[in-house]
Amino acid sequence: MGTVRKIPMRKCVGCNEKREKKELIRVLKTPEEEILLDATGRQNGRGAYLCRNTECFRKAVRSKGLERSLGVSIPSDVIETLEKEMNAIEQ
User: Fold this and answer.
1) Among 90, 78, 86, which residue's Cα sits nearest to residue 35?
2) Among 23, 25, 44, 83, whose Cα sits 20 to 30 Å from the Cα of 90?
3) pTM for the complete prediction?
């Protein structure tokens, strides 16, 4: 009998669905108050998870779920940059 490994689950702040951590993208607030995408999921800072599609990103921005999870208000230019990066990852 082998040991069964537990699969880490996270909740998307856009659609509120629980998924495997590997399927989601982490949005990160660094200690320097920068907001960026963390493709590896291992950088230091406060993180929030999103599905790999732009629709969930837009829902998270509209509902302010992303701001609530990171504990900071996000300027519109940073949101635009993040959306461009999400589009690049999605394709």
Assistant:
1) 78
2) 44
3) 0.90
CA–CA gap between residue 50 and residue 52 (Å, rounded): 6
Q: What are phi and psi of 53, to 5 degrees?
A: -140, 155
How many Cα neighbours within 13 Å face the side chain of 38? 19
C-alpha dihedral (82, 84, 87, 91), degrees to nearest 10: -120
Q: How many helices (H) and strands (E) does the chain have?
A: 3, 5
- The whole-angstrom separation of Cα 18 and Cα 4 is 20
Read off the DSSP letter of residue 38.
E
Token match 């949101």: residue? 79
> Among candidates 46, 50, 52, which has minimal Cα distance to 62?
50
